[in-house]
């Protein structure tokens, strides 16, 4: 049986992170469950050459963000965890405050209550104290924060190189094998 993982794409800038994660997982032995928020759908059109249908085809199962009765809203639905890339401050706030008003937040809440892995690619800058407190609360509940901050030791030459390095770090957390960037030696 394939390992299951949930991917959420929320409305922050940087939807390419979520799309690249989906592309990479498509080539691996994972069953991918996807939620795309309405704001993320708009950003896919604004920021990339993809359309929403193309992105949805990268997943095995796609959920409507309003369907809080979906399988992934239950702790009995076993997964390896969840990645939200990018994660907007609005989504972070919902997660940090357990404000389960949509499937993205409910699924993340389930991941946390079941002590599974939750990676949040927080995409905001600069951060004010309210953001920092939300991040702290998410960490205290068990989330791991992956701000998409580029490193340069691997000498990136393209935006894709920068995106892939962040995705590679997230995949390391889930123990997903990859060759997305050159490691430090």
From TrEMBL:
State a single Gene Ontology molecular function. flavin prenyltransferase activity
Family listed: Belongs to the UbiX/PAD1 family.
Q: Does the keyword Transferase apply?
A: yes
Could you tell me what this protein is called?
Flavin prenyltransferase UbiX
* Lineage, broadest ranks: Bacteria, Bacillati, Bacillota, Tissierellia, Dethiosulfatibacter
Superkingdom per UniProt:
Bacteria
Q: What is its EC number?
A: 2.5.1.129
Gene source species? Dethiosulfatibacter aminovorans DSM 17477
| Record: residues binding FMN | 11-13, 37, 88-91, 123
Question: Start and end of every Flavoprotein domain?
Answer: 3-172
Top EC class for this record? transferase
Record keywords: Ligase included?
A: no
Binding of dimethylallyl phosphate, residues: 153, 169
Catalysis performed (reactions): dimethylallyl phosphate + FMNH2 = prenylated FMNH2 + phosphate
Tell me, in a sentence or two, what this protein's role is: Flavin prenyltransferase that catalyzes the synthesis of the prenylated FMN cofactor (prenyl-FMN) for 4-hydroxy-3-polyprenylbenzoic acid decarboxylase UbiD. The prenyltransferase is metal-independent and links a dimethylallyl moiety from dimethylallyl monophosphate (DMAP) to the flavin N5 and C6 atoms of FMN.
Key words of the record:
Flavoprotein, FMN, Prenyltransferase, Transferase
